[in-house]
Amino acid sequence: MSDGSSFYITTPIFYVNDVPHIGHAYTEVAADVIARWHRQAGDDTWFLTGTDEHGQKILRTATANGVTPQQWADKLVAEAWEPLLETIDISNDDFIRTTQERHEKNVQRFLQKLYDDGHIYTGDYEGYYCVGCEEYKQLTDLVDGTGEYAGQLVCAIHSKPVELLKERNYFFRMSAFGQRLLDLYESRPDFVQPDSVRNEIIQFVKHGLTDLSISRQTFDWGIKVPWDESHVIYVWFDALLNYITAVGYGEDDEQFARRWPATHIVGKDIARFHAVIWPAMLMAAGLDVPTQVYGHGWLLVGGEKMSKSKLTGIAPEQITDTFGSDAFRYYFLRAITFGQDGSFSWEDLSARYQAELANGFGNLASRVVAMVNRYFDGRIPEAAELTDSDQRIRDTEQQATARADAAIERLAVHEAIAAVWQLVDELNGYITEQEPWALAKQPENAARLATVLHTAVHGVGTLAILLAPVLPKATAKLWSALGREDAVDAQPIRSAHEWEAVGRVTALEALFPRIEVEAAS
Ligand code: MSP
Question: Which residue's CA is the nearest one to ligand 1's atom 6?
Fold first, then answer.
């Protein structure tokens, strides 16, 4: 319901050791569509994204490039991560960087509280550390290396050797929260989704939690432990706290109460941090746990997670330069079942662009607007009596609106788009069947022609409203061609089918222009 309720959604904050690839962009786009949907529904929406700038991985990259880690982070944020948001049309309300004062100060405040309340102790740690994951690994997380790493144990995600570390560290008594976490997963089955990720998390916690090493002493690129400045805070402990430091934790109680808790959209590789460590940290601090942790699947290349370190990363601009940001957004959310892995292919992208966006939706919109111009001199005609066929379109508009909203509620973004696409397909069938160009030749059918074109314009307008979160640029053009001076993303999405088609249309250029095949491959 558009009751103005608070909806706070986040992406992971991205490591700035390298530039973004389409796997990162996928997380952003998914969260953005959900955020836009809620905003358009009138919910009190807040969408946060940002960058994760501390830790050994960034330090090493900066050192290798002969600059300080802060210089490196500043450069990557300005040249790569902020521009990414433009490239794929992200509507974030805030961008947090973990090197900002608002973050660092309140991370220290949080840790000090846990220390004062007895959740932290000193101990020795020896274990295998993967700098790519910034995580201590269990032996069961490691696999035998191949090629240049044959004979060594490597991280299953990064396929790179782990490092044996032995340090005196501060520990968080995470093991004390095992049962409370299991109770949480049990009492709130939606807390971790999809079910495949939920089951994995439950199994992991059932095996028993160990305490978590939360400081490092061998390097200094991080936030200092407030009572012992010879340690920096473990990068994940620091990073997870961005979700609360960005909305006023420790400084602005009103803002914090208004926003927190959040829905976290994350890749499944980092679901454990979000669904185990993070709620345990919040429980220790006496704060609410997140609303939900949703672990989406991976974009695969050759059956493996696309990654820069494996040189399989594709830059988002490689796609948007040719197809535009709307097509990027549509393609990944439509072609991949949200929650499962999916493979990207240029052929599939080109085929869907042509069949679904250019021919399916774009052409429909252009034809309808052109016919109103041609047959009614641009004035949207009023409908006379509705036949069953007209009524079916009106019913489909209502169903598409309700189904898409219900799907977004479950974060089933692909289902929401599929529900709306049923209206695209039905409208195309309706026009073929009603043949308005034939009606236009028969003066006795003038009223029928008016009804058909009114119905078609109404359907196309409903599509503009429902697709605004996914295709913000194309739907803005279409909405304006329908003669509207207000913004399409200001139209209440949960009652999209109720908009009124009146006034005059203008001209509409092709929403998804033809693309030369050579350019796309
Ligand atoms: N900095 C941490 C997150 C801290 S959140 C408190 C991190 N950063 S990351 O840059 O490595 O990854 C960010 C997100 O991108 C993760 O959700 C990750 O799953 C996602 N992806 C990275 N490669 C991906 C694919 N190939 N496919 C889909 N998502 C991918 O982890």
Answer: 240
